[in-house]
Amino acid sequence: MPLAIALLVLSFAVLVGGAFVFTNAVEWAGSKLNLGHGAVGSVLAAVATAMPESLIPIIAIVSGEQGGEIAVGAILGAPFLLGTLAMALCGISALVFRARRERVALDLDRPAMVTDLAVFLGAFAVAVGLGAVGSRPVRIAGAVLLLLVYAGYTWRTLRRGREEGGDEQPPAMYFDPSKQDPPSGLQLAAQLVAGVLLMVGGAELFVTQVEHIAKAVGVDALVLALVLAPLASELPEKINSVLWIRRGKDTLALGNITGAMVFQCTIPVGVGLAFTSWSFTAPAWTAGAAALAGGALALVPALRGGRFGPPLIALWLALYLGAVAAILTVS
């Protein structure tokens, strides 16, 4: 058991390390494509930071045994954390850094954020609703629908990003020895591959250890994945949003979260619909409902000028902590 816990912690470190390497390369890809902050945040950075969480269910499905439960837990856990705790962190960051920023309200790309949240609420409502449907053909049709939704969303966002134009260069790329010249295509590709390999290795280790720990303590693997997977792979990467808010890059910070919400409720959910039974227990229903409630709350600052007040922050924290307590209790 102690060894399994140590290896689980190691899997967190490998996942996060791979995500940092991958995200840095993706930011440079956005710079080379001359995309604006909105497109980089909502598509490139969001997909990059969602990669560790998305690889966990894929590895879990391939591994068999309790893989289906771990996959469903990891898939639902990401929107749950993003729609509650991650949003609260943005509001807290705006308050903490208000003196440095000389304002409390976040400077949002309102149309982009409203679009992201509307797509998320619609797509994730479909995903949660299909948790009550036992028909595999219906689930397959739902998976295809969600994939088409994300393809349309990506096309629209990137087209808008090209119209905005690019911003300043991101931090120096790790695989660029000069740290001064723009990295070559080969350096960019090498860093992307290295990041993916690290994340795959971390995901494989995570799934294996969750299975061992679940058997040892007699807890559903779904519950462990639902709570631990997003904390391990999503939350550390959302620290990027905190840093971006500190630097005044609010559009990039919020796009990173809302774009990841759209990605997580379409691509990973599509995988879950197609390759698992997608049958929900009480913990899964609880997480799904909390994610939808948190996403709906996020429309409030999006529609009222970026003001993330203490009452909203308290509601997001209450949703997250209350849902976690309920999940652990019913399990």
TrEMBL record:
It comes from Actinomadura macrotermitis. Keywords: Membrane, Transmembrane, Transmembrane helix. Residues 4-156, 190-326 form the Sodium/calcium exchanger membrane region domain. This is Sodium/calcium exchanger membrane region domain-containing protein. The keyword Transmembrane helix applies. Its main location: membrane. It holds the Pfam family Na_Ca_ex. One of its GO terms (molecular function) is calcium channel activity. PANTHER family: INNER MEMBRANE PROTEIN YRBG, SODIUM/POTASSIUM/CALCIUM EXCHANGER. The keyword Ion transport does not apply. It is a multi-pass membrane protein. InterPro entries: K/Na/Ca-exchanger (IPR004481), NaCa_Exmemb (IPR004837), NCX_ion-bd_dom_sf (IPR044880). GO terms for cellular component: plasma membrane. It comes from the Bacteria. It is found in: Membrane. GO terms for biological process: intracellular calcium ion homeostasis. The chain crosses the membrane at residues 70-97, 117-134, 140-158, 253-276, 282-300, 312-330.
